[in-house]
Amino acid sequence: MKSILTSFFIFISLFLSAQNQDMVIPEKIENSIQKKNLNTVIFMNQQIPLENLKDADVLKKMTFLENQDFDIRVFMDNSLLNYLHKLDPSLTETDLLQRGNYQFSFYVDGKLIYTENLNTGAGTADSKKFKTTFRIPLISTRNEDSWGRYLWMRFYQSHDGIDALTSGNHLLRIEIRPYLRTSEVKTGNLIASGEIHLLVPQKNISQSQIAVQPIQKNSGWKVSEDKFNTEKIKLLNKKIAEERFKDITSIIVIKNHKLLLEEYFNQSGRDSLQDTRSVGKSFASALTGIAIQEGYLQSEDQNLKTFYNLKSYQNYSSKKDSVTLKSLLTMSSGFEGNDEDSDSPGNEENMYPTDNWVKFTLDLPMTENKIGKTWNYFTAGVVLTGDILDQSVPKGLKDYADRKLFQPLGISTYKWQFTPQQKPSLAGGLRMKALDFAKFGQLYKSNGVWNGKSIINTAWIDKSFSNYFAENTDFEGYGYLFWRKVYQVGNQDYEAYQCSGNGGNKIIVFKDIPVVIVITAKAYNKPYAHPQADKIIQDYLLPAILMSNQK
């Protein structure tokens, strides 16, 4: 009887609160486990429906394994929409759900490690309007499609959670608050929290896995005699062996034109052809520069109408006539294409199933954006660049790339990805050995010269390594199909331009130090792929190369 009355009074209280504040009426709180754990995050090591949940299923401690289910269930005394309403009662339901969501904070041993304001698209509108409890898998052996898994990956892999949860005993605490983004970000009061003691077992790693790998003969490079901090590299190798950095296949460091570090992991080796995905886009930039200097293209300011009868394609507008090669190289062509927006008609995932990728691109409508000013990651535009090259250079792109770029660099083993028309796709997928990718990076570091022969002129490299979007604060910059990135070691900044591909693949060319770094990896479509590569560079490789207290 007491339980029934308690439930009744909770519901009446929420009902009256909703009526008084123009809020929605959330679901009734009837489950006994929820009543006992209001405003609490509980932890489980298996998927259990709410109606079957028992006190014994709620864990206070567990052995933490990366290949074991790890769930949380959140119990609140109201719905998210009502919490958001309290932050700004003037906004409509639609505005609140478009501007706000949950904020998660992760603490390890009392130290805040990571806070994230969830993307407003995470979770359904109905659940945020009415639900007072929800379950999310942090780790799922069944690979459940859940924003919770990616939230955990970002905490664990990308934002130092993995460094905090070293072997031994730790206290993990999760706190949840509502947040609302208006003219500023407003954060509400704590709505649920919980903690669990985790025992992280020691992994059995051999000394051979940790040791710096010796450079074998016949690399095709002179071997550097420069010293570096071997202990730092051993720590890096240990983390790769422990899978704290995941799916890394190779690391190459070139210093002063010489091979300083060559290491392979996860069944990869010197002769492995690394699938670096969009790293191949930067080769489109190089080949365009070569074609211009040889006169097969006039300049990067040439318009699309020079190469195509644009009126014969769908969605023609005069604006298409003004699209330049440069705007394709800088991903600012104004086409309705954005790979980071799943709803964009020009998203690359819409292109691949079609039987003509060039037609797909030229059929796209144009946006209101001024050509050359607004950056959007646009793979289809690079396909178009490749087609322009293929029709402009003698014997086509495949032969031209081999004669003018690969043969001069001594690269004989590689594989293209091809378009449906069996033309090399410059969108990505070019595979070659890690040491050969390093040659491409060193070519740019050496101002286009390889073995005394000029392959790409210096002016083109200067243009390629210029930031055309300095006013865009959302990222660090972009050149001619090269990303700008600034790494920081201590108080010193190190500016670089890099080829970058899905999975955490990188060719990094530093502007002011004589260093080229290649990282290849297979963490495809993982949210930690690029952050972990950047962490390897910033926290391990650069300090090992540059620190004065070398061992």
Report on this structure.
With 551 residues, this protein is of the alpha+beta class. The protein is globular, with a radius of gyration of 27 Å. Mean pLDDT is 94; it is low at 14-21. Strands 2, 4, 5, 7, 8 and 9 form a six-stranded mixed sheet that branches. A six-stranded antiparallel sheet has the order 11-10-20-19-18-17. The protein contains 19 helices and 20 strands. It has helices at residues 2-21, 32-36, 80-87, 93-99, 125-130, 147-158, 161-164, 207-210, 230-241, 281-293, 318-321, 325-329, 348-351, 357-362, 379-392, 396-406, 434-445, 458-464, 529-546; strands at residues 40-44, 61-63, 70-75, 100-108, 111-117, 133-139, 168-181, 185-187, 192-200, 248-255, 258-264, 274-275, 414-415, 431-432, 449-450, 453-454, 483-489, 492-501, 505-510, 515-521. Strand 7 (168-181) and strand 8 (185-187) form a beta hairpin.
> What is the general shape?
globular
Report the span from N to C terminus.
73 Å
Q: What does the largest sheet look like?
A: 6 strands, mixed
The mean pLDDT is 94
Which features does this protein show?
6-stranded antiparallel sheet
Outline of the structure:
This protein is α+β, with helices and mostly antiparallel strands. The protein has helices at 2-21, 32-36, 80-87, 93-99, 125-130, 147-158, 161-164, 207-210, 230-241, 281-293, 318-321, 325-329, 348-351, 357-362, 379-392, 396-406, 434-445, 458-464, 529-546; strands at 40-44, 61-63, 70-75, 100-108, 111-117, 133-139, 168-181, 185-187, 192-200, 248-255, 258-264, 274-275, 414-415, 431-432, 449-450, 453-454, 483-489, 492-501, 505-510, 515-521.
